[in-house]
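Entry 14. Ran structure prediction on the chain below.
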Amino acid sequence: GSLLRTCDGGRSFIPNAASMYGNPHWEGDFEALGRLFGLAVWQQVTLDLPLHSYVCAWLLNDGEPPSEGDLESLDPQLAASMAWIENNDVEGLELDFTDGLDHTEHDAGDDDGEEDVSPMEGAPRTFALADVLGASDEARAVAPGSRVELVEGGEDKAVTSDTRNEFVKTMRDYRLRGSLREPIQAMARGLRTVMPSEVLRDARRMLSPLDFCRLLSGLRGVDVADWRRHTRYAGGLQPDAKEVKLFWNVVEGWSKTHPKRLHGLLQFATGSRRVPVGGFAHLVGLNGGRHPFTLHAGRHLPPGALPTAHACVCTIDVPAFVDFEAASQKLVQCVDLGTRRFDEHETHESSDDEEPR
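Output, structure tokens:
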């Protein structure tokens, strides 16, 4: 299954404990993920993969857990369930000392429904904590409904009025420590190959975990006024040109009706769906250099042509739009084509009502 999952609707991601029980290469995969995060920070490139600030606190601390963890922030639904269990009769619930591993509906990636390891099939099972796969083991399915024991023999240990406080404490410790420790330590090893411990030490002094998250994944929203304020014009194009006015009319309209399209247009122009910390004044192109967003006169484009992008330098060549409708139609096509893989027929952009992360 996927390496990461979300508990807050895609606003942030944490390691997926199920990967340790199904994917024998989970350790190397998490190390590679850590290297990716390190390169992103080092090259000032934003990733459309926001880590939870609690995970960033571990990474800043060289893979060691922070002194305090907030389950309510990490998994609000689970925190509410634990609070209910502490204060209500649990005798008829038939709970035991296990936690679910079936988080497939919350996974990051695998949008095409394909799995990197064994498909999620077969009968569910309960894993012991020691059943984590090693690199020499074979991949196995972690079927929907599978669980992991929180303590030895946890499947046979009932949650009762006498043991419910122990269960809540054990569950909180597992979710805040046990389920995250090995994946994050692997990520930290990968991160250290790009950002040595001394650099991370300096970063820890200067950055909060939330600051570190923002360095990795940028800002969630797109401020159109900031975008427009930090745009330059080239090729003889002027801010009062017809095609420029139509471009910004479309973009400002999207900010009210289709905010996800703004991220798609940003990806089309820069290669990244997210705005870096500091806003558009710190925009970075695909070549890793800082470049202002630029609208360039597309006089070389034939009539009826689509805008073209030069993502390395954050530039869009703008054709002579006939009217607002034509401008809107062509920019929608750019967003659609700019977020589509070569082998993909439909894109995720079609769900315009979904809020950006």
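The CA atoms of residues 83 and 127 lie 26 Å apart. Will compare against last week's run tomorrow.
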